[in-house]
Amino acid sequence: MARSRVVYKYTEAEDKSMRLGFLLIAAGLLSLLGLGCCWLRPALQERGGGVSANCTVLAVRQLGERFSCTFSCGAACRGTARYPCLQVLVRTSRSPAPALLHEDERQLRTNPKCSYIPPCTRDDQENSENVTYKQKYWKKKVGSQPFTCYFNQHLRPDDVMLKRTHDETVLLHCFLWPLVTFLVGVLIVVLTICAKSLAVRAEAIKKKKHL
Fold first, then answer.
1. Does an H or E element contain 177, and which?
2. From 209's CA, which of 12, 50, 58, 120 has a CA 20 to 30 Å away?
3. Quick check: pTM over 0.70?
4. Confidence of residue 62 (pLDDT cuts 50, 70, 90)
């Protein structure tokens, strides 16, 4: 005798739960894909190319060249100011050749000739004072003390980073929140199906008892 196949008919509330679950699953997958392309891939590239080393300051100097920066003076107000170029030359524990120190990857891309970009203000003198303060910091406070830096001997042998733009926290968030969203969606769908299945079985048992 062929067994009859039970067809589940979901209530409106259960249907909404299923839709919410599938929506969260799709959102989690899309978030993983989007964050993987926008954040995770460059972060892994940087981490793969950024080897930690000990750096020691060789020279700290200001070049005669000045560079432009953009400051904000209101909602629809922007202006241009200038700042002197500070260079901090270091030697790494992995290479005897001198290298130019940069704050991070972002600063290197913005101005590869300088080691520091001050907060841009309207007053050129204030920008110069900020650069001079940073120069004194590297000369007097750091001096010959070794500190941790990051560099890529193959891609950028003449540049080192003081810190990474993408750290472990960024990598964690790239995985954690999309994964949590995906798992919550799966949990909602599974619980809804299980609850419906149990309700149908309970109803079937109840009908058999009345027969």
1. helix 168-210
2. 12
3. no
4. very high
